[in-house]
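Case study.
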Amino acid sequence: MTLTLAILTWALPLASAIVPWVGTRARGTGIAVAAGGAGSLAAAITLAARIVSGHPLKLLGGLVYVDSLSAFFVVTVALVVTLAGWGSYSYLRAEEERGELSPLQVRLYGTFFAAFAALMLAALQTGNLGLLWVLVEASTLASAVLVALEARATSLEAAWKYIIISSFGVTIALVGTLFVYYSATSLHLSPDQRLTWPALFAHASVLQAPSLRLAFLLVLIGYGTKVGLAPMHTWLPDAHSEAPSPASAMLSAALLNTGMYAIIRIQALTTPELGRYANDVLLIFGFASVLIGALFMIGCENFKRLFAYSSIEHMGLIAVGLGFGGVIGIYGALLLTLNHAIGKSVLFLTSGEVVLRYRTRDASEVRGLLQVAPLTGLVLLLGTLAILGSPPFGVFLSEFTIVRASFAGQASWLGFVLLPLLVVAFVAFARTTLGMVFGSRQGRAAGLASGSPLVGAVPLVAGLGLLLVLGVWIPGGLNELILHSMRSIT
Amino acid sequence: MTQATSPDTILLNLASVLILLCAFACLGSKLFDRYLGYYALQSVLLSAAAAIVAEKLDSPALWALAVLTLLIKGLGIPVATRRYLVARLSLKRDAAITLGLSTSLIIGAGLTALAYFAMRPATLPGPLLDTAAVPLAMAVVLLGGLCMVVRRHTIAQLLGWLIVENGAFLGAITLVATFPFIVEAGIFLDLVAGVLIMLALVSGLAQRLASASASDLRRLKG
Amino acid sequence: MTGVAAILLLCAAVLWLAAASFAFLARTRAGLAACAATSALGGTAAVAGGGIVALHGTEASRTIGAGNVVGAVTLQLSPLAAAFIVLLGLIALAIGLFAPRYHRPGSGSAFYFCVYNVALLASLGVLVAGNVVVFLVAWESMTVFSYLLIMRHHQWRGVMAGGFLFLALGEAGFALIVAAFAILSVKTGTLDLAAMAARSHAVPGAWRSTVFVLALIGFGFKAGLVPLHIWLPEAHPVAPADGSGFLSGLVIKLGVYGIMLFAFQLLAGGPMWWGVLATVIGAVTAVVGVLYAVIEEDFKRLLAFHSVENIGIIVTATGAAMMFRAGHQPALGAYMLLAAIYHTVNHGTYKTLLFLEAGVVEHATGTRDLDRLGGLARLMPRTSVVTLIGTLGIAGLPPLNGFVSEWLIFQGLFQGFRIQPLAGVVLVLAGAALALSGGLAVMAFAHAYGIGFLGIPRSRAAAQARETGQPLAGAAVLAGACVALSLGAPAVLIALGQVARAVTGVQLRPVLLPGKLTIIPAHLNFAAFSPTYLAVFLVGVSAVPLLIYLVGRGARTRTVPVWDGGMLRFRPRMQYTGAAFANPIKVTFGRLYQPEFHVERASDDPAGRSGPVRYDFHVLPLFQRYLYDPVVAAVRSLARFVRPLQSGDVNLYLLYIFLVVVIAYLFYLIQSY
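After joint prediction, the assembly is written out as follows.
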């Protein structure tokens, strides 16, 4: 039963890949994608409940491995797929009506969106580090097609940069995985076993230290490219701003998390043998990312790029939380993973509405959104406050937990470095988006409403509502899941 | 494992050195044809190395991989790329390099030295298939990266990536014999898919921008 | 009793939540009235609940649900917070009664009411928070929803800038508050406020001082201490009248509450220099605030700067309380704390009242510029009377409540000789500064009320002002509170004495109210004062001319015009202008203002027939120019500096990764030796 659930989480989205080719158009594709996501989410939550109350799922010698950490990430990604899938419906319908997307493009979108989702969800459920690599690289390739979908000069440019930089980085991760494999050669395990995480974790204290160090560094650089840690982040602003908005949501909220999952797995392997080595390296890259994210947000006129830099900043924060470690640090990092995923999805879907209405990604051309499109403006306003770590939304609780962790360690002064960066990011981001929301409507404005305003509003409201709930209350089930996840890697 | 001076090991070392030299040659060649040719040669040598290890370890999986390498990397990709370059982009030269030729080669030599010192036996205490080849594999990885960094043309960057992959594969062979087959198969699939998608992208770029050189991809900044 | 208080506060919270949820009803006039009434009712409940807690000095806390790594939902009732809850309730009540007079039904008002009631709820949350996380969530929610309050009329000029400044500085302050709480909770190992208070004495002194300074500056941003106050004059004028009232009446007081929370409960028993720091900052704030208030022509900006001055007074009193406690004068310490809280409540009443009425004036005349007003006393009599009460209160003139609390504070400061000499000097200097600011405050309000309300209208807009005809209930409540707080001072002092006792453990009754109606400043034989007798005396004295008039009414009178120098009729231009009234101050304190004058004459005829003269006067925005602008410019230039990293060149991007890989190998190499 658990196995069935695990398979359903990625099989359902994959199944929706067939629908576009069976003769439907944007409407059918959109519905299929959304349904696939919703089904996946239901399966994911049930799966997580079963894993927490039972044992990890381990099959085929570790090829399939789902423990609490996997389940947590699967739920997060499935949630993003659901929200983005719903957003895809409005996007595809509106773009098809306007004639911006050809039938082939709609089909490609449906197929690759589904493949992208399925690959990520499958990557989170394998215990074989090599297979993990394969699936992560495959998801990169699938998402590159999505980035290039609208076939503008800038989309193609962004897609090229994305694919070449990511592939380079991820191949470095392959070399790193190689060294992980190598560091286990003295263990008496079969070759297949030696590459699976459960077996490696069980023997983590006898892995070879020198090669493990290099392994972690290379894996962090490699998967860090996928996560968007500085200085490997350079593809992120381009790709996330040029992709169609629901795909941007998937990229920012799901793919980055998948990369982070891989890093967490490898970090867990190094802790018994190398102590705080991995933590210190994570802190360096994490702080660099927060700094870069905050600085580049200043004066950024393209609002989708702004959201992308915010993702870099948040991923840096998660890395910082993991770097500080301890119960508080890791809990905060995992909680931020979930909250950021929801918040960023909402923001990108909202940006999709704005782009549909104003036909521009330039924030200075958008004014008075509250008057022109009250719901979109309101969601953008609240979403901005939410993602910037403002109570009463969930991101604040996670950020505060990480700040507490920063003061709890040896180097408390790092907390004093972190806080000003967060303030700078807040002011820079809020300045741009609040300028879009308030004010009187500007000349260029309005345009047509997006295809189905009410349907398009559902994921936005649902996401915001979820963030609001998570901002004042952490459900018992979620708390259990996170605590279990932490236990499975320590 | 076997002794360091057995014929297998010598052959393997020889293959590795030649692979490295191919990488240098790729770094230094200005003509696309030459570039592709050296890559193809490198892949053939790589399949030979895989065959040597397969023979030593008597592993059918490795034999399969050797054949795959030969067919896909040695023949398939170079031929497809060349046809594509000639047909769609109709160009033979890639003169756009960011560093001067001698500078790149010197840096390449430096990287090889770095790989050599970093991958000393002392740092790799576990059992190895072939001690001397590992630094060479790492050097190929770094050189492939250098190729990507200094070359302006998108196809050239793609080839650089493929060289990095070659180096990783060589490293896998010499460090751990092989990854599990399913993983290796997956890697190959990814590679092929990656190449196809990249070629499609470059085709789109060439149509839109009438250029496939990275120096024209400057619209997205800041 | 605890239970009753808790239920009352819960009722308040539920009512405000209901008002927020049903705010969409405010699209109609009846719905607006209902919404406002619910809000006012919640305020009443809060006053009652807070009053009970304060009077009984009870402390209780309760945790709802299980906690987790992030925190727990713990709520507490504390007397210190209770005094602020009473203020919150009073302001909510007054604004609830005022709202139908000022707001027009519509979806804008609906949104406004929803946001406003959530802000009330968040403020209550700050005051009943028993856990760090609850406090922080409530605090920043209050900031965010206050920001949305300010943005009510976001299409108007200056609103976006003012609101954003509020939000940005609020965030900066919040970061510091988070740091203070995070450090203290980490060092004491708990997130529960009561437990933190109990364990904080074990924390090393250096960390305690760091936390205190962080809290002082962090809460100082919200309270409006100089130089963190620059958002006040920008945000207050652009918010709706009751929004400004809420901001000045309550929100900045929460900053003071935060400082008191840290100084007296979480970090009790600090060294002398903490108090000195607070006193000095408070005194500087008071003087600077009032100096900028005196020269202001914009009524609401004047009020905003004046709020800064009062916050300075309150923080000076708080600092003096800390100093007295550190100097082994517990009775005086408790007394100063009591005086600070008393002044807080007083300021809340009259400042809110003045902002509400300023809003009414702006609504009726269309301008906030004092130089265009005038003559409102005749055109809007009820508004003027109520404003007069507020003005007398705020200027600290007897017999109203401002005078009482300022008297208390001054008497405390003058007793600085009872602690060690150096610290005592600080207190005396603070007293001198407060005296200066008090005098200037009287001048500022003579300016405001005299130019704005008396005389004859200076512009057509002012001449067209009329009362709206709606009941004055809200303003009347506040005016009544002003009077009650002064006449009923002994009762108030008994109540606040309970609060002070709960916080500091000192029983003040005998050294505060020896008799029934006389107040002494914590020491016999120093000074004494009775507001009740004073009020009776003033009433009695003012009865004398009344008596003379009534007696002499029967005599024959002759009515003739008064000699007025040969004028045909009065013109507005014959009156004192605001600019002229404040000119002596502008000249004396020119160094501070660094003004830019600009005078344009139509011609240079020295006999004065020069035609229109245009006079512009700009004050140097001192803190913006020398503190904030450099910081912002530095951050911007840093951002510009790193921008070329994302140049668009893919080879450069690949180089970054390549370099990191090479460095990784190098690092590995070096480590292996």
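Observations recorded in class. The longest strand of chain A covers residues 57-59. The beta strands of chain A are 57-59, 64-66. We will return to this complex in the next lecture.
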